[in-house]
Every structure is written in structure tokens, then in C-alpha cells.
Amino acid sequence: MNDKLLITHITAAWLREENACEDQVLTFEAEWPNGADITAGNIRRAIELKLDVDWLFALVLRAPIYKQYDEACAPIYKQYQKALAAIFENMLEEPE
Predict the structure, then answer these.
(1) How do residues 38-63 score in pLDDT, each as one tens digit?
(2) Which of 2, 23, 32, 88 is positioned for an S-S bond with 36, CB 3.0–4.6 A?
(3) Over 70: is that where the pLDDT of 1 sits?
(4) Of 59, 36, 33, 61, whose CA–CA distance to 46 is shortest?
(5) Which helix (H) or strand (E) holds 9?
């Protein structure tokens, strides 16, 4: 039993059962047709492929580990949201 993960191997079938977006499943399946173990290297590759690892983490990390992850990401996400707001504000400004 893994003390950090609820499951250690995911497949396209599992992703579909969990209602993952089909485009994400197809990308995953193309890279890992036989499924993939949840490892640091595979997570890095998933990020390169622009797969939604935040969604995955919410499903596979045990509650105390997910809480740590969520708390570590909170300030980064807040900065990201501020940056997005600034970008949209600049885009919507009327030319003088």
C-alpha cells in the first residue's frame, strides 16, 4: 500500500471512468498505450504534453498529501490569477 497515492498505475480506461476530457485521454493513450505508473518522470512528461495533472492529483493523492500540494500551490495560483487579470485588463483597454 502506498502512503501517498490511492492508486499507482493509471490507464485510459480508468481516465474515462473518472470522466476525464476525451482529448486528454487520447493524448495520454498515445503516449502510454498500456497505461502508466505514477512517477515523477511520468508526471514531468504529462506536463510537457499539457495534460491536466492538477485534476489527476485531486483523484490519486491521499488527502494529507493533496492538502500539502494544494497549500504549496495556493500562492503560485494566486499570482497566476493576478497576472491573468492584468493581461485581460490590458487587452480590454480602449485605445486613446
Answers:
(1) 999 999 999 999 999 999 999 999 99
(2) 32
(3) no
(4) 36
(5) strand 9-10
